[in-house]
Design goal:
The chain has one domain (about 5-125). It is built from three helices and two strands. With about 130 residues, it is mostly helical.
């Protein structure tokens, strides 16, 4: 059986999924601690920064293409939201939006991964 982890596209998808998993963990911690005095919401840097640190750059192959943005490594950063009188910095509405965005990113990466795996299976006849 072919090891797809050595194909750059699939390696990138694995990194993105690891980033998504870690972000969901942090967001769940934030939501779980929404009533904890002094809790500071945390989030990951954008995934594009992980790509930049790995030496991967987005290619703009046509001047008409939009310039993309990239973001993040797996280190958590403190959120700079307004604090409640007890020092808690979790805004549930913002956290839930981030959860929804992260869920959408997970679904997209999973679908792309499945499509490419299907193409590879077609090519190798399986």
């Amino acid at each position: 059986m072919m090891d797809f982890a050595h194909i750059p596209l699939f390696a990138l998808a694995d990194k993105r999924l690891a980033w998504i998993d870690r972000r969901q963990e942090l967001l769940a911690e934030n939501i779980a601690n929404a009533d904890t005095p002094g809790w500071r919401a945390r989030d990951l840097l954008p995934f594009v920064k992980t790509l930049q640190q790995a030496g991967v750059a987005l290619a703009r192959t046509d001047p008409a293409h939009l310039v993309g943005d990239a973001g993040g490594d797996l280190r958590a950063e403190q959120d700079r939201t307004e604090r409640a009188p007890d020092g808690n910095g979790v805004a549930i509405d913002q956290e839930l939006k981030k959860v929804a965005d992260t869920d959408s990113a997970h679904e997209l990466v999973s679908l792309i991964d499945m499509k490419y795996l299907g193409l590879f299976r077609t090519v190798i006849g399986k």
